[in-house]
Design a protein that fits this description.
- The complex is a heterodimer of chains A (118) and B (111).
- With 118 residues, chain A is mainly β.
- Chain A is built from no helices and 12 strands.
- In chain A, strands 2, 5, 6, 10, 11 and 12 form a 6-stranded mixed sheet that branches.
- In chain A, a hairpin with a 2-residue loop joins strand 7 and strand 8.
- The model of chain A has no long low-confidence stretch (mean pLDDT 93).
- Chain B is mainly beta and 111 residues long.
- Helices cover 0% and strands 57% of the residues of chain B.
- Chain B has no helices and 11 strands.
- In chain B, the strands form 2 sheets. In chain B, strands 2, 4, 5, 6, 9, 10 and 11 form a 7-stranded mixed sheet that branches. A 4-stranded antiparallel sheet of chain B has the order 1-3-8-7, with no helix packed on it.
- Classes of the chains: A mainly beta (118), B mainly beta (111).
- The interface between A and B is medium-sized, with 28 and 26 residues.
Chain lengths: 118, 111
Protein backbone atom coordinates (compact mmCIF):
# COMPACT_ATOMS: atom_id res chain seq x y z
CA UNK A 1 0.00 0.00 0.00
CA UNK A 2 1.11 3.50 -0.70
CA UNK A 3 1.85 5.97 2.08
CA UNK A 4 2.29 9.73 2.01
CA UNK A 5 4.18 11.64 4.68
CA UNK A 6 4.21 15.37 5.34
CA UNK A 7 6.76 15.94 8.07
CA UNK A 8 5.97 19.60 8.69
CA UNK A 9 2.78 19.99 10.75
CA UNK A 10 3.08 23.77 10.54
CA UNK A 11 4.98 26.30 8.45
CA UNK A 12 4.95 30.06 8.34
CA UNK A 13 6.07 32.64 5.79
CA UNK A 14 6.15 36.39 5.43
CA UNK A 15 3.96 37.90 2.78
CA UNK A 16 5.78 38.17 -0.58
CA UNK A 17 8.40 35.60 0.40
CA UNK A 18 8.84 32.00 -0.72
CA UNK A 19 8.03 28.87 1.23
CA UNK A 20 8.51 25.17 0.48
CA UNK A 21 6.29 22.42 1.84
CA UNK A 22 7.70 18.90 1.96
CA UNK A 23 6.13 15.61 1.01
CA UNK A 24 7.55 12.12 0.68
CA UNK A 25 5.76 8.99 -0.41
CA UNK A 26 6.31 5.30 -0.60
CA UNK A 27 5.19 3.15 -3.51
CA UNK A 28 6.31 0.18 -5.57
CA UNK A 29 4.49 1.50 -8.65
CA UNK A 30 6.32 3.18 -11.50
CA UNK A 31 3.43 5.19 -12.89
CA UNK A 32 1.28 7.40 -10.69
CA UNK A 33 0.06 10.93 -10.07
CA UNK A 34 0.89 13.33 -7.30
CA UNK A 35 -1.18 16.28 -6.19
CA UNK A 36 -1.20 19.19 -3.82
CA UNK A 37 -4.51 20.32 -2.41
CA UNK A 38 -5.26 23.47 -0.43
CA UNK A 39 -7.91 23.56 2.28
CA UNK A 40 -8.65 27.08 3.57
CA UNK A 41 -10.85 27.65 6.65
CA UNK A 42 -13.89 27.42 4.37
CA UNK A 43 -12.98 23.66 4.25
CA UNK A 44 -13.25 23.53 0.46
CA UNK A 45 -10.61 21.19 -1.00
CA UNK A 46 -8.91 23.03 -3.86
CA UNK A 47 -6.63 21.33 -6.35
CA UNK A 48 -3.42 23.35 -6.54
CA UNK A 49 -1.15 21.35 -8.81
CA UNK A 50 -0.80 17.94 -10.44
CA UNK A 51 2.27 15.96 -11.48
CA UNK A 52 2.44 12.83 -13.61
CA UNK A 53 5.28 10.56 -12.50
CA UNK A 54 6.39 9.73 -16.03
CA UNK A 55 7.03 13.41 -16.76
CA UNK A 56 10.44 14.62 -15.71
CA UNK A 57 9.46 18.26 -16.01
CA UNK A 58 8.24 19.79 -12.79
CA UNK A 59 4.66 21.12 -12.87
CA UNK A 60 4.03 24.83 -12.46
CA UNK A 61 0.83 26.76 -11.89
CA UNK A 62 1.43 30.50 -11.59
CA UNK A 63 3.12 31.07 -8.20
CA UNK A 64 2.99 27.37 -7.33
CA UNK A 65 5.63 24.91 -8.50
CA UNK A 66 6.80 21.48 -7.46
CA UNK A 67 10.16 19.79 -7.10
CA UNK A 68 9.51 16.19 -8.08
CA UNK A 69 12.34 13.79 -7.30
CA UNK A 70 11.12 10.36 -8.41
CA UNK A 71 14.10 8.36 -7.23
CA UNK A 72 13.96 9.98 -3.82
CA UNK A 73 10.15 9.73 -3.77
CA UNK A 74 9.92 13.37 -2.85
CA UNK A 75 7.34 15.92 -4.02
CA UNK A 76 7.70 19.38 -2.50
CA UNK A 77 5.53 22.41 -3.18
CA UNK A 78 7.07 25.85 -3.57
CA UNK A 79 4.88 28.91 -3.16
CA UNK A 80 6.49 32.09 -4.47
CA UNK A 81 5.44 35.64 -3.61
CA UNK A 82 3.23 34.35 -0.80
CA UNK A 83 -0.09 36.09 -0.30
CA UNK A 84 -2.40 36.27 2.69
CA UNK A 85 -4.90 34.17 0.75
CA UNK A 86 -2.40 31.31 0.61
CA UNK A 87 -2.93 30.65 4.32
CA UNK A 88 -4.51 27.22 4.54
CA UNK A 89 -3.85 23.58 5.24
CA UNK A 90 -2.00 21.91 2.38
CA UNK A 91 -2.30 18.23 1.61
CA UNK A 92 -0.03 16.14 -0.55
CA UNK A 93 -1.77 13.20 -2.24
CA UNK A 94 -0.84 10.13 -4.28
CA UNK A 95 -2.94 8.38 -6.88
CA UNK A 96 -2.24 5.18 -8.79
CA UNK A 97 -1.99 5.54 -12.55
CA UNK A 98 -4.99 3.51 -13.65
CA UNK A 99 -7.17 0.52 -13.08
CA UNK A 100 -7.20 -2.11 -10.40
CA UNK A 101 -8.95 -2.08 -7.09
CA UNK A 102 -7.43 1.24 -6.10
CA UNK A 103 -8.76 2.99 -9.18
CA UNK A 104 -8.81 6.71 -8.65
CA UNK A 105 -8.13 6.47 -4.92
CA UNK A 106 -6.24 9.38 -3.40
CA UNK A 107 -3.95 8.65 -0.47
CA UNK A 108 -3.36 11.80 1.54
CA UNK A 109 -0.59 13.00 3.80
CA UNK A 110 -1.33 14.42 7.22
CA UNK A 111 -1.36 18.00 6.04
CA UNK A 112 0.73 21.11 6.70
CA UNK A 113 -0.83 24.26 8.14
CA UNK A 114 0.61 27.31 6.39
CA UNK A 115 0.43 30.70 8.09
CA UNK A 116 1.19 33.84 6.11
CA UNK A 117 2.32 36.88 8.11
CA UNK A 118 1.64 40.38 6.74
CA UNK B 1 -21.90 26.47 -12.39
CA UNK B 2 -20.82 24.45 -9.34
CA UNK B 3 -18.87 21.39 -10.49
CA UNK B 4 -19.42 19.05 -7.53
CA UNK B 5 -22.22 20.00 -5.19
CA UNK B 6 -23.32 18.23 -2.07
CA UNK B 7 -26.16 18.89 0.32
CA UNK B 8 -26.57 19.67 3.09
CA UNK B 9 -23.47 21.63 4.12
CA UNK B 10 -24.23 21.10 7.79
CA UNK B 11 -26.09 18.28 9.45
CA UNK B 12 -26.75 17.99 13.17
CA UNK B 13 -28.60 14.91 14.33
CA UNK B 14 -29.12 12.65 17.30
CA UNK B 15 -27.54 9.27 17.84
CA UNK B 16 -29.50 6.45 16.31
CA UNK B 17 -31.00 8.51 13.51
CA UNK B 18 -30.68 7.77 9.80
CA UNK B 19 -29.49 10.52 7.48
CA UNK B 20 -28.50 11.02 3.85
CA UNK B 21 -26.06 13.29 2.06
CA UNK B 22 -26.62 13.97 -1.62
CA UNK B 23 -23.99 14.66 -4.24
CA UNK B 24 -24.16 15.69 -7.87
CA UNK B 25 -21.47 16.53 -10.42
CA UNK B 26 -22.02 18.32 -13.73
CA UNK B 27 -18.55 17.63 -15.13
CA UNK B 28 -19.41 14.45 -17.03
CA UNK B 29 -16.91 12.51 -14.89
CA UNK B 30 -17.13 8.72 -14.77
CA UNK B 31 -15.84 8.26 -11.23
CA UNK B 32 -17.27 9.57 -7.98
CA UNK B 33 -16.08 9.19 -4.40
CA UNK B 34 -16.89 9.71 -0.77
CA UNK B 35 -14.08 10.78 1.51
CA UNK B 36 -14.16 11.29 5.27
CA UNK B 37 -12.13 13.94 7.09
CA UNK B 38 -11.82 13.27 10.80
CA UNK B 39 -11.30 15.69 13.66
CA UNK B 40 -7.53 15.64 13.09
CA UNK B 41 -8.11 16.68 9.47
CA UNK B 42 -7.00 13.31 8.13
CA UNK B 43 -8.68 12.46 4.82
CA UNK B 44 -9.49 8.91 3.86
CA UNK B 45 -11.46 7.39 1.05
CA UNK B 46 -14.66 5.55 1.91
CA UNK B 47 -16.14 4.56 -1.45
CA UNK B 48 -15.48 4.91 -5.14
CA UNK B 49 -17.92 4.36 -7.98
CA UNK B 50 -17.00 4.15 -11.65
CA UNK B 51 -19.92 4.38 -14.06
CA UNK B 52 -22.32 3.48 -11.24
CA UNK B 53 -20.29 0.40 -10.29
CA UNK B 54 -18.79 0.14 -6.80
CA UNK B 55 -15.01 -0.05 -7.16
CA UNK B 56 -13.68 0.77 -3.72
CA UNK B 57 -15.18 0.01 -0.33
CA UNK B 58 -12.58 0.80 2.30
CA UNK B 59 -13.70 -1.27 5.29
CA UNK B 60 -16.47 1.15 6.10
CA UNK B 61 -19.16 -0.06 8.55
CA UNK B 62 -22.17 -1.38 6.69
CA UNK B 63 -24.26 1.33 8.33
CA UNK B 64 -22.87 3.47 5.50
CA UNK B 65 -24.48 2.69 2.17
CA UNK B 66 -23.63 4.62 -1.00
CA UNK B 67 -26.07 4.71 -3.87
CA UNK B 68 -25.39 5.85 -7.40
CA UNK B 69 -28.60 6.20 -9.43
CA UNK B 70 -26.60 7.47 -12.41
CA UNK B 71 -23.02 8.48 -13.02
CA UNK B 72 -23.71 12.11 -12.12
CA UNK B 73 -25.04 11.33 -8.65
CA UNK B 74 -23.62 9.54 -5.64
CA UNK B 75 -25.54 9.70 -2.39
CA UNK B 76 -24.47 8.49 1.03
CA UNK B 77 -26.97 7.05 3.48
CA UNK B 78 -25.99 6.46 7.07
CA UNK B 79 -28.07 4.30 9.41
CA UNK B 80 -28.07 4.30 13.20
CA UNK B 81 -25.71 7.23 13.53
CA UNK B 82 -23.05 7.07 16.25
CA UNK B 83 -21.05 9.79 17.97
CA UNK B 84 -17.93 8.59 16.16
CA UNK B 85 -19.52 9.31 12.80
CA UNK B 86 -19.11 13.03 13.43
CA UNK B 87 -16.78 14.29 10.69
CA UNK B 88 -16.69 16.19 7.44
CA UNK B 89 -17.78 14.10 4.47
CA UNK B 90 -16.60 15.07 1.00
CA UNK B 91 -18.01 13.98 -2.29
CA UNK B 92 -15.60 14.13 -5.22
CA UNK B 93 -15.31 13.15 -8.86
CA UNK B 94 -12.67 12.56 -11.51
CA UNK B 95 -12.21 11.49 -15.10
CA UNK B 96 -9.28 9.31 -16.07
CA UNK B 97 -6.06 10.79 -14.76
CA UNK B 98 -7.46 14.20 -14.02
CA UNK B 99 -7.25 15.72 -10.59
CA UNK B 100 -9.98 14.67 -8.21
CA UNK B 101 -12.36 17.59 -7.68
CA UNK B 102 -14.16 17.93 -4.37
CA UNK B 103 -17.51 19.24 -3.23
CA UNK B 104 -17.83 21.74 -0.41
CA UNK B 105 -18.08 19.07 2.26
CA UNK B 106 -20.83 18.22 4.73
CA UNK B 107 -20.07 18.71 8.41
CA UNK B 108 -21.96 15.98 10.25
CA UNK B 109 -22.36 16.38 13.98
CA UNK B 110 -23.95 13.56 15.96
CA UNK B 111 -25.17 14.52 19.41
Amino acid sequence: AQTVTQSQPEMSVQEAETVTLSCTYDTSESDYYLFWYKQPPSRQMILVIRQEAYKQQNATENRFSVNFQKAAKSFSLKISDSQLGDAAMYFCAYRSYAGGTSYGKLTFGQGTILTVHP
Amino acid sequence: DTAVSQTPKYLVTQMGNDKSIKCEQNLGHDTMYWYKQDSKKFLKIMFSYNNKELIINETVPNRFSPKSPDKAHLNLHINSLELGDSAVYFCASSQGGSGVLFGQGTRLTVV
